[in-house]
Design a protein that fits this description.
Among the domains are: 59-69 and 216-302, Efflux pump adaptor protein, beta barrel domain (Elongation Factor Tu (Ef-tu), domain 3, Beta Barrel); 76-101 and 183-208, OB fold (Dihydrolipoamide Acetyltransferase, E2P) (Beta Barrel); 104-179, Helix Hairpins (Orthogonal Bundle). It is built from 5 helices and 20 strands. It has helices at residues 3-26, 28-39, 105-140, 146-178, 229-238, and strands at residues 44-50, 52-74, 80-85, 92-93, 98-102, 181-183, 188-190, 200-201, 210-225, 242-246, 253-262, 272-279, 291-308, 313-315, 318-325, 329-334, 336-340, 344-349, 356-360, 371-375. The longest helix has 36 residues, at 105-140. It is elongated.
Length: 417
């Protein structure tokens, strides 16, 4: 190849490279990237929320089982034919409600016999007393034998004892007759009927006629670690402790009750202590045998500093937050978190409760960085970027029920100092 051909080839390559570079710098995508890179040099767009002071309850969580306050298996106390069933399955009944009746004919006859026997012996007692008075007067005037009077006195005592025995037998027969009417021993809800009308029932029937459970109010048995027993006992000694039963989402409160019992020993196999709480269960949200998540309120932090959970970041030196300082500049403050949940965190030290803290926009955030501040719950548009044309206020951050923006923490690009 000649020298001239080499020069022509080099010139062609240079022309192609120049064309490619021109196309790269003039494409809309690269222009947009250059715009974003230039914008990265400006203020950092963030969302902030106001810290506050609130009374915050301190909870201990546990998992328990709902248990009927009282459960009774209604069994017949006499044997006989079941002539009527007066309840419906699942019916709420009051104490004393007539659930069923057993044929009373045999027991009525036994009671009538006992009453008649009592009347017979009562008449004999009256006659013996009259004879005793007669023999006593004769003995007092020496017209009769003293021995005869004493014998008659013994006869009177014998009939008095017999009458008492008859009366007891009559009361017993009356009680047995009453057992033919089966009544509810407690107020509650009936379960599934175990026997149908017309069957012969016996006192040895294990299933009884029906089971009644008292579910309003209802109890919940739950366990807590043994390490928390001292805190619970200290708080329990000061007064009643509130217990909240949570729904399936483990957030909504379905009923509120009070702690009634702390078990007197620790379960050595699990290292836990059982507790019992009673709930009114007015809406029947709790059911016997149901697993329930509960939380026990053992204390209340008065006027504690509260921030959004999204504001708390983690670094080598522990938790910290970005605070909006004078001139809308970011300032790192190390904090101590006493407790937190999905929406809020309680800060025990590091904040005064009057600061504004950053809750979103941590990607380019550093200590001392200039901020483009947007309040949580209000539209926020990064500086240097065209505002998107949306209808109906689109672009507004969603706010949770706790008043905090529903944003995702993007991480931090700096280390807490």
């Amino acid at each position: 190849m000649t020298r001239r051909q080499i020069q022509i080839s080099i010139a062609a390559v240079l022309i192609l490279v120049a064309g490619a570079v021109a196309m790269f710098w003039t494409s809309p995508q690269q222009q947009s990237q250059r715009g974003r890179f230039r914008n990265a040099e400006g203020p950092v767009p963030v969302l902030v929320a106001q810290a506050s002071r609130q009374d915050v309850p301190v909870y201990l969580d546990g998992v328990g089982t709902a248990k009927a306050l009282n459960t009774v298996i209604v069994r017949p106390q006499v044997e006989g034919k079941l002539i009527s069933v007066n309840f419906k399955e699942g019916q709420d009944v009051e104490k004393g409600f007539v659930l069923a009746r057993i044929d009373p004919a045999t027991f009525q006859a036994l009671y009538d016999q006992a009453v008649a026997k009592t009347a017979q012996d009562t008449a004999q007692l009256a006659n013996a007393r009259v004879d005793f008075e007669r023999y006593k007067r004769l003995a007092d005037t020496n017209a009769g034998s003293r021995q005869q009077a004493d014998t008659q006195a013994a006869t009177v005592a014998q009939f008095e004892a017999q009458v008492k025995l008859d009366q007891a037998a009559a009361e017993n027969a009356k009680a047995i007759l009453g057992y033919t009417t089966v009544v509810a021993p407690i107020s509650g809800r009936t379960g599934i009927r175990q026997v149908d009308e017309g069957n012969i029932v016996q006192t040895s029937d294990t299933g009884g006629i029906v089971t009644i459970t008292q579910i309003k109010p209802i109890s919940v048995l739950f366990s807590v670690p043994q390490q928390d027993v001292s805190r619970i006992n200290t708080a329990f000694a000061k007064g009643a402790l509130n217990v909240e039963a949570l729904g399936p989402d483990n957030k909504s409160v379905i009923d509120k009750g009070t702690l009634t019992v702390v078990d007197n020993q620790v379960d050595a196999t699990t290292g836990t202590v059982r507790l019992k709480a009673d709930f009114p269960n007015a809406e029947l949200q709790l059911w016997p045998g149901q697993f329930v998540n509960v939380r026990l309120v053992i204390d209340t932090l008065k006027q504690a500093v509260v921030v959004a959970t999204a504001a708390v970041q983690r670094g080598p030196n522990g938790p910290f937050v970005y605070v909006v300082a004078d001139g809308d500049k970011a300032q790192i403050k190390n904090v101590t978190v006493a407790q937190q949940d999905d929406t809020r965190a309680v800060v025990s030290s590091g904040l005064e409760g009057t600061e504004r803290v950053v809750t979103s926009g941590f990607v380019r955030l550093t200590d001392g960085a200039q901020l483009a501040v947007g309040e949580a719950g209000a539209p926020s548009v990064p500086l240097g970027v065209d505002r998107p044309r949306r209808r109906g206020g689109e672009g507004t951050p969603q706010v949770r029920s706790g008043g905090q923006p529903q944003t995702r923490t993007e991480g931090t690009s700096s280390t807490a100092r």
